[in-house]
C-alpha cells in the first residue's frame, strides 16, 4: 500500500515542525505495519537561484551552465522530512545516519528552473548490526512525467530491532586505490555543518555542534555526507572534458566512516575520474567516503 501525500509546494518550515512534534510526542498508534509501506509523497518545489548559488559556494563547485549534479536531492529535503516525520516510523528520525547514495542522471540538467516536480518514496530495507536500513528514493520528472534525475539514499535508523535474520553488510569494502590517482586537499572549516545546513535545509543535530552530536553518541560534529560527496564531484567535474554534464552516468557512493569538522582531509581521484575516495583525515588513509561513476 502507498500512503500518498501531495499538493502544496513543499515547505521546510512545515516539515521540521511536524518532525519535531513527532520526536517530542511519539505516535500513540504504535509502529507502522509492514503493509503501510512504501510511503510516498510528491509536490512542486520552488527553486531560488540565490540558494542554488549559495550551494555552489559552500560546496566549492565550479561555475557551470548545468544544474549542480546533486541539487535535486537538496531541493527534495522538504519531501524527505515529510516522510521521515510519518507517525509510527521506528526509532528516531533525528540522528539518522546516511550510509550510501546512488544517483542516475538521465538527461543533461540545463539552466536552473523556477519549479521542480519532485517525488520521494520511503521503504524499509534489511536489518543492520546497528539498527535497520531504510531506502529513500527521490525522482525529478519533467512535465511529461519522464525522469530527469533519480537518487536513492540508504538511511540507518540506529538502535532499531529490524525483526529479521537478514542483515545487510553495509557499507561494502573499499576498492584499492588505482595507480596514478590524483590527490587533492579538502578543508572542513569550523562551523561547516551549520553553514551547509542553512543552504541545504538538513539540520540533523549530528552535524551542527559538539554538544548536539554528543546527544547521538558522536564526540564531534560530523560533516554532512552530501557536502563531502558534492565537494568530490565538483573536483571531478573540473577534470572531466564534459564538465558538469553527467547524463547517462550512474553514481554509487558509500559513507564508510565519520568525517569531522573542523579538520582537513585528502581526496583521491582516479585518472579517468570514475573512482574517488575521501580520507577521514590527512594522517590516515581510512576512507570516510568512496564512490564510482559508470555508464548505464
TrEMBL record:
Domain of life: Bacteria
Gene3D superfamilies: Hotdog Thioesterase
Domain spans labelled MaoC-like: 195-239
The protein's name in its UniProt record: MaoC/PaaZ C-terminal domain-containing protein
Organism (species): Natronospira bacteriovora
UniProt lineage: Bacteria, Pseudomonadati, Pseudomonadota, Gammaproteobacteria, Natronospirales
